[in-house]
Amino acid sequence: MRPPRALWVSFPLGRPLGIPGDADFQLDVLRATLGMLSTATEPTIEDYPTDAPSVGPEAWACPVSLDVELDDSLAGRLLAEVGRLRPWAAETRRSRGRTLFGLSGAGPDEVDDVAIVLATVAESGNVTDPPDTAIDWAHPMPFLIRHLAEDLRSFYHEAIAAQPGDTPPNHDALNRWIFGETVLGEVLLTIGGHLTIAGDADSMALIVRNLTILEGHFETDFTN
Amino acid sequence: MVRLSDLHPNEADHLRARADAMPQFECERWLTPRPLAESTVALVSTCGMHRRDDPPFTLGAVDYRLIPRDVDWADIVISHVSTNFDRSGLADDPNVAMPLDRLEDLAARGEIGDVSSWHYTFMGGHPRPQMFEEAGKEVGRLLAEDGVDVALLVPI
Prior knowledge:
The structure holds two protein chains of two kinds.
Chain A: E1 5-8, H1 23-34, H2 36-39, E2 44-47, H3 74-96, H4 111-124, H5 143-161, H6 171-181, H7 183-198, H8 203-212
Parallel strand pairs in A: 1-2
Helix pairs in contact in A: 3-4, 3-5, 4-5, 4-7, 5-8, 6-7, 7-8
Chain B: H1 9-21, E1 40-45, E2 49-51, E3 65-68, E4 76-78, H2 88-92, H3 100-108, E5 114-115, E6 118-121, H4 133-145, E7 150-154
Parallel strand pairs in B: 1-5, 1-6, 1-7
Antiparallel strand pairs in B: 2-4, 3-6
């Protein structure tokens, strides 16, 4: 791309207008961009001077206690964790009037079904056969795994959003929490190992792993 | 676009390599648009947003989806396949990547002429950007036919 006029912003990926819910800030970014239509006389890149506030991993901790009852089954522990987060996520959905959950094909309230399928994949190591459920999944395996994971991530983010505090955790903080402190993270990293092994025969499995677990969070050596 | 120093080193290296490999495009003929207060503005985003009933973007997709001016935010999802950008802001306020409400604000204040009836979304991150040429030209034609004066490209 070589747009004739461009505004460079320092905001994190996923937030090109800077601050969610801050109309004045977003308007300022838009005015800075559109204003170049009357000032630039040749191809131009300008820097937007202001950063957006966010809280990094060192300063942020999830306020919800996720201590779940001991249970040998991964599915049982994941369901308990989801249950702990459910009232908070419901509060966020109520206040927003919407959810991004459902890319997998599951309905907005079928969070437990998604959790059970992901935990089953983790426990069985089967990353190729479609889950045997009544849900009409929107994608084939193993690609479905990526959207199952995204759906649960959306749900976890909804739960966090209901917590008090004006400044949200940044992307790093959210992912360090999910992959470092939650059963969901344990499930996804376990599935990452299965996808690595499946990748010997099907390169799509490795692609799905890289689209499910972001850079820096999959470092276990599964080759030994 | 975030600072490279704010990214994981592997991701930053990946983006540097992608930038080095980017095909060179010549700038088209320089145009001075009509005054902003008389211009109709449309959004073109690479955030992978679409309405829930639209087909999701698939791996390697170079097609696009349409977002109507009066879209119900309760009706949108993000099927971009990348895991390396944060959706929590978008979930909280879709305007942080698709600032349709802000365009309406600017139109209501007379700072822009009007908001386009249709806006367009792609899924960015494709390793070969030249693959978008056909769809890009198509969207350009559609924007022109709709009387759009200014296309605001919003990368995710």
